[in-house]
């Protein structure tokens, strides 16, 4: 479904992404891990069209997208979230859902008070809010949501499009254990309904529990790839996270905890 080949990106002579290749097959939940500065978010930005890579190719369902605008990539069904949730803080939760719906520009114009939005879109928005535990917050302003609720809202908003592949950037950050379990359940449920995932996160327990395979990055390069358990146990990945102080099993134990 997603094929990233030999992508490179430099900032002022420093390579944020260095000849990275990865593949996400349809129906898979793939993780992307690495310490801060590894290049994970930069790679997300290039894949989703927010940053233009220096070289390399990106294909989504067979179509080249390395020179395609973010909005057009989203219309193809490749959608992403951000580390810091985006949205319209002075609009209601429901209005934010409708703005991010798959409606065309004319339909979205109705959301801003000129007339009622399409009934089917409104029904979809309400059902999605209910699925993500936000139905009671529909008429509340986004600026009044707690940080974990903002995370769930961004996830819910992404589902308003005709989505095929969802890229989640740090979905577990700042999320309490109960909500994290809920998030994990949503990802698995959506995968069973045909959504493919590429997930970046620092929470190794979360990543190893929800992802079937993992890519590990360091200094802009992929240093390991394979089944989740194999990557978590990879010596290079262990050194990346815990150093060389002899804690050879600590990373695997953390993921299993």
UniProtKB/TrEMBL annotation:
PROSITE patterns: ABC_TRANSPORTER_2. CDD domains: ABC_Mj1267_LivG_branched. GO terms for molecular function: ATP binding; ATP hydrolysis activity. Residues 2-244 form the ABC transporter domain. InterPro entries: AAA+_ATPase, ABC_AA/LPS_Transport, ABC_transporter-like_ATP-bd, P-loop_NTPase. SUPFAM superfamilies: P-loop containing nucleoside triphosphate hydrolases. Keywords: ATP-binding, Nucleotide-binding, Transport. GO terms for cellular component: plasma membrane. Pfam families: ABC_tran (PF00005). This is ABC-type branched-chain amino acid transport system, ATPase component. It comes from Bauldia litoralis.
